[in-house]
Automatic annotation (TrEMBL):
Name of the gene: rpl20
UniProt-listed Gene3D superfamilies: 6.10.160.10, Ribosomal protein L20 (1.10.1900.20)
Matching Pfam families: Ribosomal_L20
Name of the molecule in the record: Large ribosomal subunit protein bL20c
Function summary: Binds directly to 23S ribosomal RNA and is necessary for the in vitro assembly process of the 50S ribosomal subunit. It is not involved in the protein synthesizing functions of that subunit.
Main location: plastid
């Protein structure tokens, strides 16, 4: 039998996989089978961690809002403004949902808590009244 020249499709597929895994170390970037396994593993991890990243950021925002509310309470609350700042995160979020003021989400509130504490006080006073 005569020799048959193979096409370019398999080579093109392997090249694509190698380009994806070019930054991997050792055999993970050189051997085709290992490269394919590492590519699958990387894609699974990326898919899983996108959801995990959303959870982690939400936890961070909640922690920041709660810390700013609890930190400012003893020094700011006085006889003139007894209801100036909430005592905790859960009360403030509960009142926000009770008043249907969902314009500001947790991400915005956390950013405000970091950058401008007075603005956070004004928002909390609006929610109370």
């Amino acid at each position: 039998m005569t020799r048959i020249r193979r096409g370019y499709i398999a080579r093109r597929r392997r090249t694509k996989i190698r380009l994806f895994a070019s930054t991997f170390r050792g055999a993970h970037s050189r051997l085709t089978r290992t490269t394919f396994q590492q590519k699958m593993r990387a894609l699974v991890s990326a898919h899983r961690d996108r959801g995990r990243q959303k959870r982690n950021f939400r936890r961070l925002w909640i922690t920041r809002i709660n810390a700013s509310a609890r930190q400012a309470r003893p020094s700011v609350v006085n006889s003139y403004y007894p209801e100036l700042v909430y005592s905790s995160y859960c009360r403030s979020i509960h009142d926000m949902y009770k008043r249907n003021s969902r314009i500001i989400n947790r991400k915005m509130l956390a950013q405000i808590a970091i950058s401008n504490m007075n603005c956070l006080y004004m928002i909390s006073n609006k929610i109370i009244k």
